[in-house]
Design a protein that fits this description.
Layout (H helix, E strand, L loop, with lengths): L1 H44 L13 H26 L3 E7 L5 E5 L5 H26 L7 H29 L16 E6 L9 H24 L28
Antiparallel strand pairs: 1-2, 1-3
Length: about 250
């Protein structure tokens, strides 16, 4: 009876130790699993340079593509402006005293302002849309692309002005009031003249027309850059932002 009692106690002690060991192992396994899952979540949440794909184009190549694409789009918009801009109806008349008069019919003089304002408005909208699209090219975000956007907007406006002026003079009349043949029997001639691209031929007015859309494009791009929480703007290569680690106490105070 005594031996059996000691054997029972030994068996109970061994089973208790085995349960404690099993519980300890399971606790360590749970901690290890939790640690691994936390590391996996941290790796998935932290944007590092290894997770981003290397861009196929260099930053200078991407900037060149932006400038060329905007120049082509500017030529297309120049043709669109020719279709939208209202022409100017004018009259050349010969008075009884023999003096030539070149004037506008009714309120047609307002079309001189409307056509130029439409050109600026069209390219301001284009510049804003272009800034948003260029910002979507995430791998190349930064000052190089901002400069390419500004240059591209200026080139696009200049290209559109050249294309628009050529097409609008081909579509409508170019009137030289002094050369219009008028006689005493045929005193009046009516013309449909081409609308102007710029508000005037002063260099300041021309420069302002070309630079205003570029200023809007740069402003929109800068606002999106300021609104981005990351210092690298999410571009490639990414810069890891290490969080501040709070030191843990070494041991519990006694």
């Amino acid at each position: 009876m005594s031996l059996s009692g000691e054997e029972q106690k030994a068996a109970m002690s061994l089973s208790g130790e085995e349960q404690k060991a099993a519980m300890s192992l399971s606790g360590e396994e749970q901690k290890a699993a939790m640690s691994l899952s936390g590391e996996e979540q941290k790796a998935a949440m932290s944007p590092s340079g290894e997770q981003q794909r290397t861009p196929r184009l260099s930053r200078s190549g991407a900037a060149a593509i932006v400038v060329v694409a905007m120049a082509v789009a500017g030529a297309v918009l120049g043709a669109v402006w020719v279709w939208l801009a209202p022409p100017v109806h004018t009259i050349v008349a010969l008075t009884r005293s023999g003096e030539r008069i070149h004037t506008y019919l009714g309120g047609e003089a307002d079309h001189l302002f409307i056509a130029s304002a439409m050109f600026i408005g069209l390219f301001v909208m284009f510049a804003i849309i272009a800034a948003v699209l260029v910002w979507q090219w995430r791998a190349h975000r930064g000052p190089v692309m901002a400069a390419a956007l500004w240059v591209g907007a200026v080139v696009a406006a200049a290209t559109a002005a050249g294309v628009g002026a050529a097409l609008v003079h081909w579509r409508y009349d170019v009137v030289d009031a002094a050369a219009v043949p008028l006689t005493q029997d045929d005193r009046v001639r009516y013309f449909t003249e081409a609308p102007p691209v710029f508000f005037g031929h002063d260099p300041f007015q021309v420069a302002a027309t070309l630079l205003l859309p570029a200023a809007f494009a740069a402003l929109v791009y800068a606002l999106m850059a300021v609104a981005t929480p990351r210092d690298d703007l999410g571009a490639w290569p990414a810069v890891d932002e290490h969080p501040m680690h709070v030191p843990q106490p070494v041991g519990t105070p006694t």
